[in-house]
Known about the structure:
This protein has 279 residues and is α+β, with helices and mostly antiparallel strands. The chain has helices spanning 12-25, 37-41, 86-102, 120-128, 161-171, 176-186, 228-241, 257-262; strands spanning 3-7, 52-57, 60-69, 74-76, 80-81, 110-116, 132-143, 155-156, 193-197, 201-208, 213-221, 246-250, 266-277. Helix content is 31%, strand content 31%.
Amino acid sequence: MTITYRFYESKKDLQRQIDFWMKCTKLLPYAWKPTISPNIFIEQENFHPKSRCFAFDENQMVGYMSFTGSKEFVSLGYPWVLPGYEGIIQDELFKRVYGFAESDEFGAKLFAQRFRSDWKEQIDFFLSKGFEVTRRSPILIKELSESNHTNVSKVENDFQFDKWANVIKQSEVVTEEQLSMMKEYYGSVQFDFSISFESEGYFVVTIRTDMDYAEILVVALKKDMTKFLDMVNHVLKECENRGVKVVGIAESHVPNKESLEDLGFLVLTEDVMLMKQKK
């Protein structure tokens, strides 16, 4: 076994990274759809080729690790590898990528990554590197039964940020700075559809098609709205129409957890955030 390493060379490496990540996470519970944050990052001034490292066994790609971010904050990726390479190249990938991120050349100070609580191997790896769990956010999950439904109205195949913001402004006080940050964050997500319920609610969904798993990732609700369950049912029907078999939603998006449990949702996993600050 002869392992060679190289850093980012061209945009073709972004597709290699996405394809490899999809392969490595296909059997992990409730894996999300890849974001386009790497595509955004490579166009930024602080991008560096050393932020992405690829490992090869002869001509076969067997692992990679990457990060996106700035000196203030880095989203640090996990060293994904093919089965059989776990104890061989992961530490070396971490050394090269994390080592560069915290070096004086890049100068990052705060690092974070999130996993599902079921992903024990990934969480344990980060804990072994000095990261700490800083937040656990329950995810409610529902398996959909097979049925035929007609499409509901007001379904769009993208995220209309202004529609979401208009509902949010009716229910809570938000600053323009906060809205700008959310627009940037959501701009890295590949959404599949959104449903607007006039000015009462707005839901946006992303689908991991190879796993038939959807996540209601964005929710805006009027503070005094009373049609939450009806809205969720419309979203579930649209998911069914698109071949989805399992749907998740963060508990933080839910005004009444018990109401979703009545629809068959159960807390089956958590979003686990791990962070580390350079001393």
